[in-house]
């Protein structure tokens, strides 16, 4: 039995005992992460009791000592505990009067273990109720993009509602969730590996585009606006991509549930929106739908705010939204260089973070043909739009 499976079984006993399920039959199956998770081992859990059958999903911390520091994993696990233990209850209370079709849906939560090295989260298994993941190696289609920004708008709208209905409560959470750039692991070695990461990316570009990317990525103020709020703060998801969404077709409708809240932080709504679009779409999709998707997000945000009795003009007028987009669009380069390689990595090339020798070099991936296509498309867009 693997250590992570033993950790899960021990914690599961506590969770099930607390819920009064004394007689039960438990089956655990470890599932491959397939490039969708770097910090945890993933499991499905089937529990048969006298009263009911539970179909659960679990994540158990699985990360090497050095990578734990580099990834600031202590904070990732702490953030996820906060979301499921506290924020979900706050947000669900704010939207309890809404019809189900207009709510932001969180997966049902069963328990979280905060013990160091054994951090575990147990949730409902959404796959068992018909939700399916998107193939992260494929570009989103319009339906996925539409539903994705609608969910994102509802998520952000809850921040705005909280800041208006409980300013002191929101301010406290916002202070606690300020993004702090992890500098503990920065040294000559990691700097050299960062340079290697940049050079790996630029070598797939046309010669005339390479220097534009280098000039941006080697700016001394590169991280000045990274994950920080601009005009109006919200609790941003921080890793809002197709891989962290599950979809279910219901007749002609498509429903989505968002997962993985380890990177929640006080940030800018637009940062989530850009992250979603540029990590999940190709150049062809953006030529067809980019402006339509941007407008659909803001229209969906207006509608979500009004359903929560919040005036969009008071909390996030269109001019603020446009200003935030203008300021943050160049930083799509940063996301494309640093994050996109991990989003589109082939499963067999995925670097392991759970070994003791794993270090910053685990983040430096060789560019694949898919990365070259996606990255080139992003740079083509930004140059065509006059952004870089």
Unreliable runs: none
Chain oligomer state: single chain
Tell me the fraction of residues in β-strands, as a range.
5-15%
End-to-end CA span: 52 Å
Q: What is the overall shape?
A: globular
Roughly how much helix do the residues carry, as a percent range? 40-55%
How confident is the prediction overall: mean pLDDT? 93
Largest sheet: 5 strands, antiparallel
Computed structural class: alpha+beta
Which strand order spans the largest sheet, edge to edge or round the barrel? Answer: 1-2-3-5-4
Radius of gyration: 21 Å
Order of helical and strand elements? HEEEHHEEEHHHHEEEEHHHHHHH
Write down how many β-strands occur, each being a DSSP E stretch of 2 or more residues: 10
Secondary structure tally, helices: 14
Please render the helix and strand layout as text:
Elements: H1 3-18, E1 24-31, E2 40-49, E3 53-61, H2 65-70, H3 73-94, E4 109-113, E5 120-124, E6 132-133, H4 142-165, H5 167-176, H6 188-202, H7 207-217, E7 234-236, E8 245-250, E9 253-258, E10 265-267, H8 269-280, H9 283-307, H10 312-315, H11 318-328, H12 332-338, H13 340-343, H14 369-384
Antiparallel strand pairs: 1-2, 2-3, 3-5, 4-5, 6-8, 7-10, 8-9
Protein name: (African queen) hypothetical protein
Organism: Danaus chrysippus (African queen)
Pfam family, one: EcKL
């Amino acid at each position: 039995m693997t250590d992570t499976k033993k950790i899960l079984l021990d914690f599961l006993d506590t969770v099930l005992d607390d819920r009064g399920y004394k007689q039960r039959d438990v089956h655990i199956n470890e599932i491959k992460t397939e490039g969708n998770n770097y910090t945890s081992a993933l499991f499905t859990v089937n529990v048969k009791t006298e009263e009911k059958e539970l179909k659960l999903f679990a994540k158990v911390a699985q990360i090497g000592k050095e990578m734990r520091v580099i990834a600031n994993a202590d904070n990732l696990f702490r953030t996820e505990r906060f979301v499921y233990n506290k924020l979900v209850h706050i947000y669900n209370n704010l939207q309890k009067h809404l019809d189900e079709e207009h709510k932001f849906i969180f997966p049902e939560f069963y328990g979280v273990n905060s013990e160091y090295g054994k951090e575990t989260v147990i949730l409902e298994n959404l796959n068992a109720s018909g939700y399916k993941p998107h193939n992260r190696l494929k570009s989103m289609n319009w339906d996925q993009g539409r539903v994705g920004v609608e969910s994102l708008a509802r998520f952000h709208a809850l921040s705005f509602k909280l800041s208006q209905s409980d300013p002191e409560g929101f301010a406290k959470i916002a202070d606690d969730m300020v993004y702090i750039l992890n500098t503990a692991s920065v040294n000559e070695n990691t700097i050299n590996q960062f340079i290697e990461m940049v050079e790996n990316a630029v070598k797939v570009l046309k010669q005339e585009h390479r220097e534009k990317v280098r000039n941006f990525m080697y700016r001394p103020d590169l991280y000045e606006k990274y994950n920080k709020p601009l005009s109006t703060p919200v609790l941003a998801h921080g890793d809002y991509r197709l891989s962290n969404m599950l979809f279910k077709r219901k007749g002609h409708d498509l429903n989505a549930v968002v997962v993985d809240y380890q990177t929640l932080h006080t940030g800018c709504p637009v940062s989530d929106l850009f992250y979603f679009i540029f990590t999940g779409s190709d150049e062809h999709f953006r030529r067809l739908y980019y402006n339509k998707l941007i407008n659909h997000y803001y229209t969906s945000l207006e509608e979500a705010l009004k359903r929560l009795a919040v005036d969009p003009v008071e909390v996030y007028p269109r001019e603020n939204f446009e200003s935030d987009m203008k300021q943050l669009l160049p930083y799509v380069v940063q996301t494309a260089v640093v994050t996109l390689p991990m989003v589109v990595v082939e499963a067999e090339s995925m670097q392991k973070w759970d070994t003791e020798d794993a270090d910053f070099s685990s983040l430096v991936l060789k560019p694949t043909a898919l990365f070259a296509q996606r990255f080139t498309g992003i740079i083509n867009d930004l140059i065509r739009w006059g952004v870089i």
